[in-house]
Structure formats: structure tokens, C-alpha cells
Please model this.
Amino acid sequence: SAVEYGLDAPFAIEYHDSIPSTNARARDLAAEGASDLVVLADEQTGGRGRLDRDWHSPSGGVWLSVLFRPDVPMAHAPVFTLAAAVAVTRAAREAGVEAGIKWPNDVLVRHGDAERKLVGILTEMEGEADRVSWVVVGIGVNANVDPGDLPEEANPTSLSAERGEPVDRRLFTQRLLEEFDALRQDPESVLDAWREYATTLGKQVRVETPSRTIEGEAVDIQFPGSLVVETESGTEIVSAGDCEHLRPL
Ligand code: BTX
Model:
């Protein structure tokens, strides 16, 4: 419970020392009719990323999923991924780590030319086109984790590695959930907040989607979270869910 974890959070908390995946657990709870709760774990044994990729989740991280039932059409749900990125970026900055957001769902720390991955976000949902039934926003934060225990090719980092000392996970999680709770109730404010922390805008990028590759300058994002790319042949809008890879050129 929230009390056991010592959190004064805007959501009920179901805490696990170890669980396969907090997103899978939150989906099961959604199927049982639950809402406005957070599944939180110290370790995941079967953490999932986008496109069925693995998410490594050793003990010491903040692996959590927020389940809620917003009154929005399905097409608006990507805004909650952006809201999560803003919330976790603010909480990281309060913990002394200068994080930034790479569209669509990465929170990174820049070291010279290299960007190291601190956070992954996976949003899942179910419902009808005109109204979602539930949304699960999964947020994986490498908190007090040794980046050496994470896949090297992802160029990972962690809050503890950036700070040189562990972070107070209780306080960090509380700030993250407070920020997320405020943003989810005010989706219109999310884009402006997101632009403040964006590392992608103003850059030449290559975006790969299942059907095409788009190259050009990432000039802006638009509701509910699509990237606007200025290419040689005109303006292209890429939806967040379509992005398989985004690389700087
Ligand atoms: P993604 O598809 O953008 O990123 C997945 C890729 O990131 C992997 O293929 C791997 O290269 C790299 N990677 C794996 N683990 C880590 C890590 N700990 N740190 C940095 N890089 C890593 C991102 O997907 C979405 C991740 C969501 C994770 C949360 S945790 C709580 C919830 N439960 C769950 O199963 N997933 C979500």
C-alpha cells in the first residue's frame, strides 16, 4: 500500500519486491475494473519495452505502472506518454540530474555528444475509438541501478550513477506521481511543458516507421504527441506510436 511504501501519493499503491511486469499486473487489474492505482516494484523479471523489446529491471530501480480511466478518445492517449516523460524529467531534475526528453518516449542525460538512456515509458490502452476504457502508463526509471548491469548497446545511465550517490526513491516516486497526476488532468498543458525539456526539436533526424523513413528537421510536436518534420518534399507528421527509431543525422 501507499502507507507501507511511505508515500503520500495521489494514487493507491500496490507494491511488489519482485514481479514479472508492473504493466502486465496493471492490465490484469484493469480487467478486474480497478482504476487510479499504481503498481510499483523493486525488481521486474519480465519487464517489457515497446514493440515487445525487453526492459531490464534489476533491483534498485523505480518500475511502476499507473492505471487510470481518462475521459478521452483513443487517439488522445499518446499525450499521457508525453506527460509521463515531463513528470519523470522534473523529478529527475529535482534530484539533481539534468534529464531531457527525446521524442517520443525516452528520457536521457547528455554527456558531450552522447545521450544516455535513463528512463523508458510504455503506454498501453483499451477501449472504443471515441473513449478509452483504461490507460496503463508504464515508467521504468534506472534509479539506484549500476548501468553496468544494463544492456550496453542502449547506452544506459541511472540516477545514482549521475549523482554519484543513491537517490531517495520514496521522495523521487512521490514527486513523479504528483507531477503526473497534475499533468494527466490538464492534457492541454503537457505539450508546452514537454517542449521545455525536448532534446529533439531543431535537429536533423531520421525517423523510421513500419511503412517509411522520414528525414528532415524536427521542428515541433503537436497534439496528442506527434512529431512535425520539415523534409525536402514538405511537412510530415509522425505519430508517436509509429516511431520505431529516431536518430540524429
Ligand atoms: P523501448 O522499446 O523504447 O526501449 C527498449 C530498449 O531499451 C531495449 O531493446 C534495450 O536496448 C534498452 N534497454 C532495456 N532495458 C534498459 C534499461 N533498464 N535502461 C536503458 N535501456 C534499456 C522503453 O521501451 C519502454 C520501457 C518501459 C518499462 C516500464 S518499467 C514498468 C513497466 N513495466 C513493464 O514491463 N514495462 C514498463
User: Anything to note?
Assistant: Residues 21-23, 44, 47-51, 53-57, 63-65, 105, 117, 120-122, 138, 140, 142, 150-151, 153-154, 156 surround BTX (CB under 6 Å). The radius of gyration is 17 Å.
